[in-house]
Amino acid sequence: MTDSTHLTDLPVRALLAELKTGSTSSVEICRAFLDRIDQAGAVNAVVFADPEHVLQEAAAADQARAQGDEAPLLGIPFSVKDSLAVANWPWRSGSFAREHVIAEGDATVVARLRESGAIPLCKTATPEYTWSAQTHSELHGRTRNPYDLDRSPGGSSGGEAALHALHGAPFGLGTDGFTSIRVPAHFCGSSGLRPTAGVVSEAGTWPATKQTGMGDISTTGPMGRYAEDLDLLLSIIAGPDVEDPFVHPLASAGAPVDLRQVKVGVLPSLPGCTQGTAAAIAAAAEALSANGATVVELEPWSTEEAVELAFALMAPDGGARARRNLEPADGRHTEEFADLLRALEQGRMNIDEYLRTLDKLAVYRSRIRRSVAAVDVALVPVAAGPAPLHDRLPGDDQAEYNVDGFAHGFAIALAGLPSAVVPVEMEGPVPVGVQMVGSAHQDFRILELASAVQRARQEAIPPPTAWMG
């Protein structure tokens, strides 16, 4: 039998290999991760777990395997951001407006992972309504960075990234509107993929976004400790869904990457970014060029325009829909979120203004896509700096929290391009990640390149210890 403390360190494929050889069981794996969750209470990453039910599901998976079941993820547990529905579990999205909501069924992405044999392990923290780049809600309190509890884990998938960084789940599901998978992965030293716009179903997500001004900008994506695991998840969760008519098929993986044929693009300058951010970009480029890739300059794009467009599109109704959805909370919001709801009232558009904004989005999206199309992978900052102190700006622990430091992440979201984030460098006590961006439908290729960078830089990223107390 495998030492349970070793199980939480293994990538998903290694866990599957041990299950197939009988070296361990799903019950042992699930118990190991549940123990790790119990040990990491100070991080406040998990908002719901039902250990007894999880172990029952694991025992059933072990029995199914013994009877010849070969489902691709049979017996592997996974975490789920609380904005995604898991049948019979709380579904609160960090809001008192949904304090007593229990999901009647699974989100499509959860259902597909269940069908593959995977087992929901827990629900993870999100800021209220998923509308923040840090993870803090009046309902669940503040989630902390496992490298430094005084620092932010990012948002809105901060619970997911923090849990994966401390090896509390082998992989999981997050959502990314403007930065919500990538910033948490960057801040916490874990991995995540924002898929190509429109290839993963949003059915079973609250709040829904496709029916708002955001259109196809928000997406669900896989997260985990290791980028090499994320292709397994993506291949299962992506693709058309009758419950979400806006989803289209994702292109298949294609041939393995030959790094000697890969062109890597980097921006000519990184104004406003920290030295560690620039060092991480350089280290990622070196990891690829050392194996034959060619590094060239990217045609730059405006990041200031990204912030303007993002705020125009997130609530063109001036936040009216959000306020209606949140009425049952009876004003119980964090100060940050309450301020946001008030500020959005100034952004209400009429139909002509909204259509002009969509014109601007189309032009902006095309500009970035043309730049990225000139290379095989673009290396872009996730944010202006590493994880800041709570309520502060990345790259400046003294600056009051605002969104300016997240403009690079906003830009790639608006472009609708696949972006994988992996940890590359350390800056102070926390990791620095890099966005590895590709053309639309190059998701699997980008994950392969991201995995290569993560393997090359793994010695530079020590495991977090602050969460241990």
Give a nutshell description of this structure.
With 469 residues, the chain is α/β, with parallel strands linked by helices.
Question: Would you give an account of this structure?
Answer:
The protein has an 11-stranded mixed sheet with strand order 1-3-2-6-8-7-14-15-11-9-10, with helices on both faces. A two-stranded antiparallel ribbon has the order 4-5. A two-stranded antiparallel sheet has the order 12-13. α3 runs antiparallel to α4, α9 (275-289) packs across α15 (443-457) and α10 (304-314) crosses α13. β2, α5 and β3 (119-124) form a beta-alpha-beta unit. With 469 residues, it is an alpha/beta fold. The protein has helices spanning 4-7, 12-21, 26-39, 51-66, 108-115, 158-165, 182-188, 230-237, 275-289, 304-314, 320-325, 335-344, 351-373, 407-415, 443-457, and strands spanning 46-48, 77-81, 119-124, 136-137, 141-142, 171-176, 191-194, 219-224, 263-266, 294-297, 377-381, 392-393, 396-400, 419-427, 430-437. The model has no long low-confidence stretch (mean pLDDT 97). The two termini are 29 Å apart. The protein is globular and about 60 Å long. The protein has one domain: Amidase signature (AS) domain (Amidase signature (AS) enzymes, Alpha-Beta Complex), CATH 3.90.1300.10. The chain contains 15 helices and 15 strands.
